[in-house]
């Protein structure tokens, strides 16, 4: 099992749906999160794409200030050429000594995509993604590629330098429509689902496995969700309710109207879990859909004490999930909390760096006021 964390390049929050306690995504804050995630021993960190700070530039800026952290870099095939994407990924792979993973995001919002000059319908976007990945994978494996598709064409393209990771950095991908599942089965290493109840996740995993088998392939599975873990179950549910305490009906209705315009099958599935209502937000034991009232994309969280959350994670692992991509608000503090409370209870793949504990009293006596003014490690 691996646990990844999320870098909030759109800004961080203490409460959803309000500017109260909001933090700007400036470089010092993002560096703090990245270094914490690195030192705490997470398997990687997702950096999302969309109308916010550029994913590639943010990720590249964090290479020299981290040591082991792998960057799950999200990108959209429709807004860049496959040959350019290959060169960027291969360059990042070399400069970071193999610390890049890629999250392929086709995109489900036509209005947002139009801002980047993409005017394709839902199925056309997945056709383009299929063509893109056909070219991309061949180039990464050293082939010279000439390709003439419906959406993309290249002539004599070739990557001129080797990658660290062979045959290429791991490809993640999410999508719930039939078109998306076909792309996943044909090209993807790790299929990433949003945090639906276990029965729905099991159904999706079964379908992707079957489609991949038809292609002569196997696929791994990950899940993207939030987590609210506290020392006691009551404290965890109190924290969940605290997160949405400033939400009013108007804010929820406005967000749900915006989400309803998305062409994403996954977004529709998220919305159906709560139907825009505050009632019955616990849609499965310890699976809470309150985040999705106002947040697009991943809208559920595991909520509970450490033993309970770990048990729920193992239930997903039994279905085939081996990577959990988590968020928590605010992301800096919650990265520490999750590592301290959850990591010791899980069969993690990566070797964990010891979690900092309170210093012994004799040491504390030698800490002076001058020492406290010195720059402290994250």
TrEMBL record:
Coiled coil ranges (UniProt) are: none
Pfam families the UniProt entry points to: Bac_luciferase
Please give the biological process terms from Gene Ontology that the record holds. Answer: alkanesulfonate catabolic process
Q: Name the UniProt key words of this record, in alphabetical order.
A: Flavoprotein, FMN, Monooxygenase, Oxidoreductase
This enzyme catalyses: an alkanesulfonate + FMNH2 + O2 = an aldehyde + FMN + sulfite + H2O + 2 H(+)
| Annotated Luciferase-like domain residues | 1-322
InterPro entries the record matches:
Alkanesulphonate_mOase_FMN-dep (IPR019911), Luciferase-like_dom (IPR011251), Luciferase-like_sf (IPR036661), SsuD_RutA_monooxygenase (IPR050172)
The top EC class is oxidoreductase
Q: What is its EC number?
A: 1.14.14.5
What does the record give under GO molecular function?
A: alkanesulfonate monooxygenase activity
Summarizing the function annotation, the protein's role is: Catalyzes the desulfonation of aliphatic sulfonates.
Q: Which family does it belong to?
A: Belongs to the SsuD family.
Protein's name in the database: Alkanesulfonate monooxygenase
Gene that specifies this protein: ssuD
